Amino acid sequence: MSQEKSLLIAAMSPVTLDNVFLSTDLDGTYGSNRAVGNRSQIAANNDIEAIKAWLARFTDTKTTFDNYRKEAERLLLWSTIQQQKSLSSLTHEDLLLYQHFLEDPQPASRWIMRDSRKFARANPEWRPFAGPLSPTSQRQAIVILNTLFSWLVNAGYLAGNPLSLSRQRARKAKPRITRYLDEGLWLDVKQTIELLPKETSREREHYYRLRWLFSVLYLCGLRISEVVENNMGCFFCRRTKEGEENWWLEILGKGEKLRLVPATSELMMELARYRREKGLTPLPLAGEIHPLLLPIGEQRRQMTRGAVHAIVKQVFKDTSDRIRLRGDDCNALADRVMAASAHWLRHTAGSHMANKDVDLRHVRDNLGHESLSTTSHYLHSTDDARHRETEALHKIEW
């Protein structure tokens, strides 16, 4: 390998699809798996252009786009830095090595962000990984890359899909959800928030914002993306045939699907407390564009998923630290809380509702696991029963 090429590879950490520069022997111009002839249906001359053409299909769905870009970016960087090959020269054997790499990306200083933190992509501390991927994340990465390779073959850019030779395994029944907090650990998390200082206006705003955030994550089973991408105008009130007023939260969620989530009286009380602290009316107004969660201070802008993720993780870390103070026999519990993420609260909500005998159809609809049928748009009596049961049996009880 030439000295020039060695220097290029050494200088490539960290880089992203937006700023990486590759020489022609690494950019795929002469990739050994490039399709022969003039049958390409995309105007891509190299691997980065081909990846961007594939990603352009997902720009309307931010979560999908970000996840797909992340996996393509990781493979491109690994291919050019670790294997010293263009992505369009990778073989089936290379992809097997990459699957092992995902289990423990090394060297860590090049590939993994320090202290398992998540830095913004523009930050010099950014790296492609926050740590080794779980088995589920490894499988998801390969599924996404298989989609990429298949599309590039269909587009006439690649001659073949190096992942198509992988052993196809029979689909197994999904295991029981294990990433959730039992009642005891959930109480510890709530106590961590309750113990926060409340002397200054900034401390009170932080306290009520955390109460509101954990309330909406737990009582509504929302994903972080759903918290940051929906706004206060999604709340509305509807009167039942018995004359009761029920509040609902209409969420645009995963896969651009709409679902209605019961906004219980507990949730609306937490919302009112939080909004008063922000100088807003206690109840949201129709058409209001304020995000569901706001930054501390006067700003009214949307927060990033990374920022909200960091807020939740800090609460889990503080809870873990408190649990460790009870003695060494509590270290396993502390480790479990430390491993938790915002998505654990969604699983916690589902598990707690099921354990309290909430009708599983209502749990399904609250979490949006399946799309509502067209008929359900007219079955408001069914929605009302779901609201009553969620109200009665699914509580946060600060």
UniProtKB/TrEMBL annotation:
Q: Which GO terms describe its biological process?
A: cell division; chromosome segregation; DNA integration; DNA recombination
**What's the protein name?**
Phage integrase family
The residue ranges crossing the membrane are none
Whose protein is this, by species? Solimicrobium silvestre
Q: Which InterPro entries match?
A: CB, DNA_brk_join_enz, Integrase-like_cat_sf, Integrase_catalytic, Integrase_recombinase_N, Tyrosine_recombinase_XerCD
Domain (Tyr recombinase) ranges: 176-392
User: Where would you find this protein in the cell?
Assistant: Cytoplasm
Please verify whether the record's keywords include Signal.
no
Gene Ontology, cellular component aspect? cytoplasm
A molecular function (GO) held by this record is: DNA binding
- What are the residue boundaries of the Core-binding (CB) domain, all occurrences included? 45-153
What keywords is this UniProt entry annotated with? Cell cycle, Cell division, Chromosome partition, Cytoplasm, DNA integration, DNA recombination, DNA-binding
